[in-house]
Amino acid sequence: MQSPRCCLLSLLLYLFLLSGTWANLEGAFTLRLLQTTTFQNTSFTDMEGLGLLEDIELGCLDKHTWSIHFCQPWVRPALPHVDWDTIENLLKVYLQKFRHLINEGAMQRDIPYPFVVQCMAGCVLYSNRTSQAFAYVGYNGQDFLSFDTENVTWTLSQDTELSRYVQSFLQNYTALNELVEIIFNDTCADEMEVFLQYGRTAFPVPSPPCQPLSHVGAFTLRLLQTTTFQNTSFTDMEGLGLLEDIELGCLDKHTWSIHFCQPWVRPALPHVDWDTIENLLKVYLQKFRHLINEGAMQRDIPYPFVVQCMAGCVLYSNRTSQAFAYVGYNGQDFLSFDTENVTWTLSQDTELSRYVQSFLQNYTALNELVEIIFNDTCADEMEVFLQYGRTVLERQELPVATVFTRTPSLDQLLLVCHVTGFYPRPISVAWLRDGQEVPPGPALNTSTILPNADLTYQLRSVLAVAPRDGHSYVCRVRHHSLGTRSLLIPWGNSEVVLITGLVAGLLAAVAVAAMSVLWVWRQRKHQQMEESESRNSILSREA
């Protein structure tokens, strides 16, 4: 039995084994292939796929025909038509085998339906043409396995009986693992350049200015920084700017320069302003690294450790704003900044947190600068990004909801409402029992909102009930894209409603047919009577 990964990698091999010229683009570029598959039961599977070069959608999977929909006009010309035909055929074979093997494994291991499998693979290509590969597998929204391309091994992201079984299954495919290692570590730097060559004009294209955004609700701007201090000499820094869930820009960890993730971000400010910001950013990161290392040595803090910083503001529709700033240490909340009182407050009371609090509190100029930036200028400056990114921010995708059941035991029935494909992220999903909303309790379990491969979201709400309890149940979905309407998806009576509708439609069709036959019959009868009268009149004249 062939592993589904072999088919996927055959497809990737066709994608990567191309010839092209280096696009002379600076910085790092990431190619990601995303696949999300929802196994509702052994018969019904919902598959979604997406290819991304940075944040640019190259192509997506048609979930009905499993064909490739090209999202950019320059993607199809990057390969001959015969190659795309081969890729589509391989893709369909892969998806069929993937679905079959997963269902077969689920039945062998008694895995309860429904469940979701997510796969992400790709590589990062740096300006010096070195590359770093990655491959991850998720199960029900949780990290499950990852592929170590250096050691050619699958590593556990969670240690469970199921993950160990899948790890062992994949690890035994030596040829598969070697193929993954070759594709991502050896050929990515050479072959991804063809897409950069064909799509180079897609990166610097500016968006024209538009009218001020008439937004409803609130928008949040977040600046994230994660720094791993391996020792006094080596520090790994990562940075990201987000407007809601949209990536504005990220930090190049090698050059500390800004990589713009949206084509409309750079035009939002003059070039001279971006140059100033980059220079200030580099000075800040140098001082940040120096001061943290200095403090760590003074306080005998053991290496390695991780420092996380998040700062930003929420802008409301009345143009008032609320700022926030947080510091984390080794994944735990550490300090937060009170912008109203211009003070640092403890999130955990330890000797180290009190030392850092005292250290920061003595920087009066720093605290006043933070207070001014976030409380005074956020409402004015963030609106520039809202104006330039209006089209992206106002994107709306309608939710698609399905209701099905699971029976974990004879005395319990689980009603599952699965909602997917919606954007923006906020959504309301509730169960109605006999028209009344079911309150929160142990019988109701709603998952967190999870991302899909096509940059939309999904979640599920599960309600435990007794079989044949005599009540009617409806899943209600409210979302901004629906306006004042709601999606109502019934369970139980839905088949009756469907059958009644079919019978009513059939009766209506019969009635229409009967009326049509009667009308035709009357028309013919009337015509025959006229012809008979005409003949009688002629005979009487002849007589």
How would you describe what is shown here?
The protein is of the alpha+beta class and 543 residues long. It is 36% helix and 32% strand. The chain has 10 helices and 25 strands. It has helices at 4-16, 81-108, 161-171, 174-191, 193-198, 271-298, 351-361, 364-388, 390-393, 494-542; strands spanning 29-39, 45-53, 56-61, 68-70, 115-125, 131-139, 142-148, 153-156, 219-229, 235-243, 246-251, 258-260, 305-315, 321-329, 332-338, 343-346, 400-409, 412-422, 428-433, 436-437, 444-446, 450-451, 457-465, 473-478, 487-491. The strands form 4 sheets. The protein has an 8-stranded antiparallel β-sheet with strand order 4-3-2-1-5-6-7-8, covered by helices on one side. Helix 1 (4-16) runs parallel beside helix 4 (174-191). The N and C termini lie far apart (96 Å). 23% of the residues are buried.
Keywords:
disordered C terminus; alpha+beta; Murine Class I Major Histocompatibility Complex, H2-DB, Chain A, domain 1; 543 residues; 10 helices; 8-stranded antiparallel β-sheet; Immunoglobulin-like
Topology (SSEs and partners):
Elements: H1 4-16, E1 29-39, E2 45-53, E3 56-61, E4 68-70, H2 81-108, E5 115-125, E6 131-139, E7 142-148, E8 153-156, H3 161-171, H4 174-191, H5 193-198, E9 219-229, E10 235-243, E11 246-251, E12 258-260, H6 271-298, E13 305-315, E14 321-329, E15 332-338, E16 343-346, H7 351-361, H8 364-388, H9 390-393, E17 400-409, E18 412-422, E19 428-433, E20 436-437, E21 444-446, E22 450-451, E23 457-465, E24 473-478, E25 487-491, H10 494-542
Antiparallel strand pairs: 1-2, 1-5, 2-3, 3-4, 5-6, 6-7, 7-8, 9-10, 9-13, 10-11, 11-12, 13-14, 14-15, 15-16, 17-18, 18-23, 19-20, 19-24, 21-23, 22-23, 24-25
Helix pairs in contact: 1-2, 1-4
